[in-house]
Design a protein that fits this description.
The complex is a heterotrimer. Chain A is mainly alpha-helical. Helices cover 73% and strands 0% of the residues of chain A. Chain B is mostly helical. Chain B has a single domain, classed as MetI-like (MetI-like fold, Orthogonal Bundle), CATH 1.10.3720.10. The longest helix of chain B is centred in the last third of the chain and has 35 residues. The radius of gyration of chain B is 24 Å and the shape is globular. By secondary structure, chain C is of the alpha/beta class. Chain C folds into two domains: 176 residues, D-Maltodextrin-Binding Protein, domain 2 (3-Layer(aba) Sandwich), CATH 3.40.190.10; 187 residues, D-Maltodextrin-Binding Protein, domain 2 (3-Layer(aba) Sandwich), CATH 3.40.190.10. In chain C, the strands form four sheets. In chain C, strands 1, 2, 3, 6, 13 and 14 form a six-stranded mixed sheet that branches. In chain C, β9 and β10 form a beta hairpin. The chains are: A mainly alpha, B mainly alpha, C alpha/beta. At the A-B interface, α1, α3, α4, α5 and α6 of A face α1, α3, α4, α5 and α6 of B.
């Protein structure tokens, strides 16, 4: 197909540069704050270089919050569990909504959405009582179980839209050939919707990462199970906030997820569907 | 030949069976808290215990002039934020979809706002918007656009816009990635056929890409609107609803007047009102979006 | 079949084994705010457990910012902890709603408190928490900047002097004279109250529970506070006190009000601390803020909890907290022979102010109280109304939250 001419290339790269600047600007501010000493964190007007920059905070943060490594692991572990469990529930449900018509289809779809219309803060106390009755407090489950419940509705919506894009004739052809629906789901739909699946899994993973805080604070008292966001609060003292260490810890904390995405984004390549037509 | 052949789209027990696990899970966990919240909205539940007061919470809320102002402000805030997210997200997806060297790295680099805890991201913006210490003010002063420090969060209109931009920052990466994934799913042969027919890039984008990813756009629009409506931490950390209420959206007001003071009855009533508002809004929204969808796919 | 019975019997035995052992012990669950429980506290806890073998105390450290909400949520859900560190501003609301119990503070402790401390935890004639952390405020000045503006590094003796000093600094050096907090945050209200209490004003009368905010003193204070915006850093409505510390450290403001921990935060600044100046109708005052340890209702062992808390908030344990956190001493430590480190000029600024200070107002709905006050202050700074009207409006709104 046509290649980009020089003008188009310049336009595209400028656009990307602008976009990247917007996205990364706060991180620049945060990164510099993590490099400065606590008694002179900020300068006016803004300076990129000063003579007291150092990576001291990156070392000190492990002393201030000794369990930081554990928290990073917990965040990862919790989000992974939530993702795996959620995706298992969501794939069949999303497929059903994408392909079938049945009584109650639309109303149940909107009902699902209604769940997300309630901010988590409102449901906190009733949820606490429920988890207490189920005996799930103060454990990993305390954070996983509600997390899954709140991520299922939107995940169904999102995955459904990707399933809807897959041409229905592929499935009908296979059906006529004698394949059962479950076989179709496994061998045709899942591979073809890989970009969508990856993206929705990522969405769930990150969503779990984000929700962790509220659930962790309220439903869990054991430090060993706490995720990063809760751990970051330990940089807040009675009247002082160790900004530099907190920023350092935040940046380090998101590194694992970014590393995963480096691998995953290779799957966001086009042409997966092209092969299917030949089948 | 399959003698039990049914039309491919007819309702079957299978449809329900596939949904059942998810539905049961949700019901088990969320049903009771939701019902309880609705029940609480008819009480004056607070630190002091509770009594049933019927519709009093609702009457007080809906009757106050302040409340109406807040609702309108919330919708405006939400509309601006979601529109920007969709537009910037679409542009971003196009940029990252282009076959240029380095795109793998760029795709990873747009992830941080989505991954970092919102509170931390907002602390970043807080200092960014700072009139003295922020990069924005710094660049403004160096280039002469500003003749002195300017606190973006210190004045009503600028605070309103600033919080919107911060919200767009949080939501755009996800929208971009979802649009990007959708674009990746568009069959290559469609483009090749159009190219052979002499179609320009713009033509290919508007006639092929956009229609193909429309289901995803619609879903993102709706979900984004719902999340944005309840967007709490972003505004809270930047302004706590100030200055003087300029950035007080419904969720901020709910927190200040109810949840923060443990007035669960009031808080529950507000949550129910939010849900009703969002449902009505979603119904209209979907109707309009589906009309657009019909137009795009038939055009 | 037999196996099923067997395992059932074993589990019954195990259950009874564990339940009989728990009958004898009392399980106390205490919460402190912060990253971890302090050593001095653990010493007290361990000693108590050694002296009382049938009491088992578990201490939990909950990070700042989430600590208070968590224990209150637990109390509401019916699962109260035995005792917890909590802001004294919450005591009235919790007391009125029966979530905490009135505490009996031993005479040995009450006689040692600084004047006014007990007022911060008293409601309806009873104490509702053991005061545990205390702060007062003073004015910090950067002597270098004052010298640059040709001013002597001496504290202002009146509001007019404060204003003219700030103005001179602004005109002569271009640096903002004073740091002004205006963000919708709790310490904006606190900053304002420092001035209010230096001008003979009051928010609520603890004896009668009347809102006394609407007075000429308040109007005068509000007008002054708004006037300070002329000589303060730009855009006060975006600043709260901890951010002002950063400005001070970057030498962009010459003065601001902060607590005793400030000296440690300012690094190499050539600083001097002075009393907050008196307004036209008052004397040099300050704001007394305490945090306490409250004992929750419904645990069944409230008296044991009170015993433990009394040990935690007195003597060596309390002294250790005050010195390690850099707080204004909550007790008159010379009474137990501890003079250092409070016998310096620096500390005198914070300690002398106590007698003239006023307590943080206690209202049932303190969050709404804060919102109303901040709205009033912001309105004045933005010029959205006449000070007298703003004060009257605020006073009226507070009636609902007292």
């Amino acid at each position: 197909m046509d290649k980009y001419n020089l003008f188009e290339k310049i336009l595209l790269y400028s656009g990307i540069l602008l976009f990247m600047t917007f996205i990364l600007l706060p991180f620049v501010e945060m990164f510099y704050a993590s490099l400065r000493p606590l008694d002179h964190l900020f300068r006016s007007p803004y300076q990129f270089f000063s003579d007291d920059l150092s990576f001291w905070a990156y070392g000190e943060m492990w002393n201030t919050v000794p369990m930081l490594g554990r928290y990073i692991f917990n965040s990862f572990y919790l989000a992974s569990c939530v993702t795996i469990i959620t995706i298992l529930f969501v794939i069949p449900a999303a497929y059903s909504y994408a392909r079938f018509n049945f009584p109650g289809k639309n109303s149940s779809l909107y009902l699902l959405l209604a769940i997300n219309m309630f901010s988590g803060a409102v449901l906190l106390i009733p949820l606490y009582k429920l988890l207490r009755t189920l005996g799930l407090l103060n454990s990993y489950q305390a954070m996983i179980v509600p997390g899954v419940a709140f991520l299922i509705p939107t995940s169904i919506w999102l995955l459904k839209s990707y399933f809807e894009k897959i041409p229905i004739d592929l499935e009908e052809a296979a059906f006529v050939d004698g394949a059962s629906r479950l076989q179709i789901l496994r061998h045709i739909i899942t591979p073809l919707s890989t970009p969508g699946l990856i993206v929705v899994s990522l969405y769930i993973f990150i969503g779990a990462y984000a929700q962790q805080f509220l659930f962790a604070i309220t439903f869990n008292s054991k430090k060993e199970y706490m995720p990063i966001p809760a751990g970051l609060y330990e940089f807040i003292g009675y009247q002082t906030i160790k900004w530099n260490e907190m920023m350092a810890a935040s940046l380090v904390g998101i590194a694992p997820v970014l590393i995963i995405f480096i691998f995953l984004q290779k799957y966001l390549v086009e042409g997966l569907t092209a092969g299917a037509v030949k089948n | 030949m399959n003698t039990r052949f049914k039309s491919f789209n007819s309702p079957t027990v299978l449809a329900y069976a596939l949904i059942a696990p998810a539905a049961i899970y949700i019901l088990a966990i969320v049903a009771w808290p939701l019902v309880e919240t609705i029940r609480l909205s008819f009480t004056n539940s607070s630190l002091a215990g509770e009594d049933y007061i019927g519709l009093e919470n609702y009457e007080k809320m809906l009757g106050s002039k302040k409340f109406n102002k807040i609702v309108i402000r919330t919708f405006i805030w939400m509309f601006l934020s979601v529109s920007l997210k969709l537009i910037v997200g679409l542009i971003g997806a196009v940029l990252l979809n282009a076959k240029l060297p380095g795109r793998g790295m760029f795709r990873v680099l747009i992830m941080p706002p989505w991954v970092v805890p919102i509170a931390i991201g907002m602390l970043g913006w807080l200092w960014l918007y700072n009139g003295y210490f922020g990069i924005i003010a710094g660049v403004g002063m160096k280039t002469g656009i500003l003749d002195g420090p300017f606190g973006f969060l210190a004045y009503k209109q600028s605070a309103f816009i600033s919080t919107i931009i911060a919200d767009v920052w949080v939501g755009t990466p996800m929208v971009t990635i979802f649009f990007l994934a959708a674009m990746q799913g568009v069959p290559k042969d469609l483009y090749e056929a159009a190219y052979c027919d002499g179609a320009s890039r713009w033509h290919r984008f508007f006639k092929i890409t956009l229609p193909q990813i429309t289901p995803v756009i619609i879903t993102m629009a709706l979900l984004s609107a719902i999340w944005t409506f309840n967007s709490f931490e972003i505004i809270w950390i930047l302004t706590e609803g100030g200055p003087r209420g300029a950035t007080t959206t419904l969720i901020i007001d709910t927190y200040k007047m109810a949840l923060g003071n443990y007035k669960f009855g009031k808080g529950a009533a507000r949550a129910v009102v939010v849900m009703i508002l969002l449902t009505i809004f979603a119904a209209f929204y979907m109707a309009i979006l589906l009309k657009i969808n019909k137009k795009v796919s038939s055009g | 079949m037999i196996l099923k019975h067997f395992s059932r019997v074993i589990s019954l035995l195990l259950i009874s084994l564990f339940s009989t052992s728990s009958f004898a012990a009392t399980d106390v669950h205490g919460v402190m705010c912060g990253g971890e429980i302090r050593e001095a506290d653990m010493t007290v806890i361990n000693k108590y457990m050694a002296d009382n073998p049938d009491v088992n105390i578990t201490m939990e450290a909950v990070p700042w910012g989430t600590c208070q909400d968590k224990v209150i949520n637990l109390a509401i859900a019916g699962d109260p902890v035995s005792f917890s560190y909590i802001g004294s501003r919450t005591l009235k609301g919790l007391a009125e709603n029966g979530h905490i119990v009135p505490v009996n503070i031993p005479e040995s402790m009450t006689s040692m408190y600084q004047p006014g401390i007990l007022d911060t935890v008293t409601h309806l004639g009873q104490q509702w928490g053991f005061p545990h952390a205390f702060s007062t405020k003073a004015l910090f000045m950067n002597c270098d900047i004052l010298a640059e503006a040709g001013l002597a590094c001496e504290g202002p003796q009146s509001w007019d002097e404060l204003y003219s000093m700030a103005e001179t600094i602004q005109n002569k050096t271009g640096i903002a004279g004073i740091g002004l907090a205006g963000k919708d945050f709790d310490n904006t209200m606190h900053q304002f109250l420092n001035y209010l209490y230096s001008n003979g004003g009051q928010v609520i009368d603890p004896a009668t529970n009347d809102i006394t905010l609407n007075s000429p003193n308040t109007v005068e204070t509000l007008e002054f506070y708004a006037k300070l915006a002329n000589v303060s850093q730009e855009g006060p409505l975006a600043w709260e006190r901890s951010q002002l510390t950063e400005l001070f450290n970057d030498k962009k403001i010459a003065m601001y009000i902060n607590g005793p921990w400030g000296a440690g935060q300012h690094g190499e600044i050539n600083q001097k601390t002075v009393r907050i100046p008196a307004g036209p109708n008052g004397s040099q005052g300050t704001l007394l803020i305490t945090d306490s340890v409250a004992v929750f209702n419904g645990t069944g062992h409230e008296d044991i909890a009170m015993d433990v808390v009394a040990s935690l908030t007195s003597g060596d344990a309390q002294y250790d907290l005050d010195t390690s956190w850099g707080l204004t001493p909550i007790m008159q430590y010379p009474q137990i022979g501890k003079v250092a480190p409070y016998n310096t000029d620096y500390w005198m600024m914070f300690i002398d102010a106590i007698a003239d200070g006023g307590p943080e107002p206690l209202l049932v709905d303190y969050k709404a109280f804060q919102t109303v006050m901040n709205s009033m202050i912001q309105g004045a700074i933005l010029g959205e109304g006449d000070a007298a009207d703003l004060v009257a409006e605020a006073a009226e709104e507070l009636e609902e939250y007292k």
